[in-house]
Amino acid sequence: xxxxxxxxxxxxxxxxxxxxxxxxxxxxxxxxxxxxxxxxxxxxxxxxxxxxxxxxxxxxxxxxxxxxxxxxxxxxxxxxxxxxxxxxxxxxxxxxxxxxxxxxxxxxxxxxxxxxxxxxxxxxxxxxxxxxxxxxxxxxxxxxxxxxxxxxxxxxxxxxxxxxxxxxxxxxxxxxxxxxxxxxxxxxxxxxxxxxxx
Length: 198
Prior knowledge:
The protein is mainly alpha-helical. It has one domain: Ferritin, core subunit, four-helix bundle (Ferritin, Up-down Bundle). The chain contains seven helices and two strands; from the N terminus they run βααβααααα. The protein has a two-stranded antiparallel ribbon with strand order 1-2. It is elongated and about 50 Å long. Residues about 1-25 and about 30-45 have low confidence and may be disordered.
């Protein structure tokens, strides 16, 4: 059964594109935009397992890239270690998805309009331009927004659309790791902000 729904790429694009300024972070404005401001022209598209596999792969690849940047560019040792952990975790999860797709004979089919890829490139450009504590806080806010959007999309869009039991089991298995990453980024952002104000 195929369902019509908004593309996860467009949903995640809102969070990926949302890289708050250091001033916004200090003022507590780290939530991604919602409603009409969330993403321009969300497209309705049929989601099938091949598209879901491609979206799953792209989300993991995006966080591997931001994790690598944080591991290299982070000002604090905590942020660098968190970035390295993201790379490790998401590389494993991405490979699990690729192995399952191969086993099932599913060719990942990216969404027709991959807004997520464009948004990720823009977010990376913004993050690369930052340094020091500004990079750390902006990166962590980005990670909270990114993981929040992915978790929401998994729960409201992907899980209801997945037809294959093995794919559904994989997404169910790894979903708690996305929440753990979100929580770790939020907690670290609070700790670093507290240190910066003392």
